[in-house]
Amino acid sequence: MSLATDYRPTDFNEVVGQTMIINTLVKEFKNNNIKQSYLFMGQSGSGKTTLANIIANKVNGQTLMIDTAVNNSAEDVRAIVDSIQTKPLIYDKVVVIFDEVHTLSPKGFASLLLTLEKPPAHVIFILCTTEGDKIPETIKNRCECFTFTRIENKDISTRLAYICRDKDITYEDKALELISNLADGSMRQAIAIIEKLDNNITYSRVSDEIKYGGYEVLFNLFYSVCDKDTFVIVNNTKGISNVDKFIDEFFTFILDIVIYGKTKNINLTKIPKTALDMLEDLQASDFVIADKLMNKMFELQYNGKNSPIIRELFLATLLEATK
């Protein structure tokens, strides 16, 4: 069993971060005011599924986890709803968790909407998504909506230290701080790094073995734009699996480069300190390109969202920045 599973919170008071959300849910349970439809929005690893499972446990619920990337049609939704019409014998509730609900088809959302308007009394729906902007307003209006924020580095470090002590894993405080920075607000990612290193977690090991996390990919793509290397740009964009998510990450990354170029202060960015040498290697002309690319990426974010040719628009944006 993984560390993430071993140390998954089972009660509200064990959850790291998300204080406002926890306080609201605790109050709802205390006042017996539990809603039948929740929408949890936020980045991966911020605790959405963990809280959904805690709610299920507290209401003595039978949990039904739905992967909407696979079950995303109207027929899939209707089949799920049909299967939960009868209250189970040994449970008080059925808790249906739609994971990455934004991947539902338009007809799938329409079918879900009909159910949310008049859900069975014994059913609680919890919709989880990393892309809240893709959820129709009609769905949001029928849910209690919570936006999960990035977990603070200090909170991640504290939790990692507890896990290390409990598992007799030797560690350096500054190594846990680095891991927290690399995890970028995701507790799950931070624990995964701990598990990968196994024992004797030192700053140098994290720096050498984990390096820059996903930042190497972002830096390499930016380098190819600075070098006007069309071949690499085209090949790299072809290999992106989740284009929308990558574009969001790349936009934030470019914005951070612009901030660093103007301030020379990496603490004002999300870029890990282990990547400082890569930032220092950038030339003045590279920061000019970053500024230009930031403006073009902003236009793409504003005009290209939900486009069926978003990959091609992203490629065109990168190529335009090489001129």
Set out the fold topology:
Elements: H1 3-6, H2 19-30, E1 37-41, H3 48-58, E2 61-67, H4 74-83, E3 93-99, H5 106-117, E4 123-129, H6 137-140, E5 144-147, H7 153-166, H8 173-183, H9 187-197, H10 203-210, H11 215-226, H12 230-238, H13 243-263, H14 276-280, H15 284-303, H16 310-321
Parallel strand pairs: 1-4, 1-5, 2-3, 3-4
Describe this structure in words.
This protein is 54% helix and 9% strand. Strand 3, helix 5 (106-117) and strand 4 (123-129) form a beta-alpha-beta unit. The chain has a 5-stranded parallel β-sheet, covered by helices on one side. It is built from 16 helices and 5 strands. The radius of gyration is 22 Å and the shape is globular. Helix 8 runs parallel beside helix 10 and helix 12 packs antiparallel against helix 16. The chain is an alpha/beta fold and 323 residues long. The chain has helices at 3-6, 19-30, 48-58, 74-83, 106-117, 137-140, 153-166, 173-183, 187-197, 203-210, 215-226, 230-238, 243-263, 276-280, 284-303, 310-321, and strands at residues 37-41, 61-67, 93-99, 123-129, 144-147. The protein has 3 domains: 18-147, Rossmann fold, CATH 3.40.50; 153-210, Helicase, Ruva Protein, domain 3 (Orthogonal Bundle), CATH 1.10.8.60; 215-321.
Radius of gyration: 22 Å
How would you sum up the global shape? globular
Low-pLDDT runs of 5+ residues are none
CATH superfamily placement of the largest domain: P-loop containing nucleotide triphosphate hydrolases
Order of helices and strands: HHEHEHEHEHEHHHHHHHHHH
CATH class group of the largest domain: Alpha Beta
CATH topology of the largest domain, anyone? Rossmann fold
Q: What is the count of structural domains?
A: 3
Task: Give me the CATH architecture of the largest domain, please.
Answer: 3-Layer(aba) Sandwich
Number of strands: 5
Mean pLDDT: 88
Helix fraction, binned, reads: 40-55%
Give the helix tally: 16
Q: Structural class of the helices, strands and pairings? A: alpha/beta
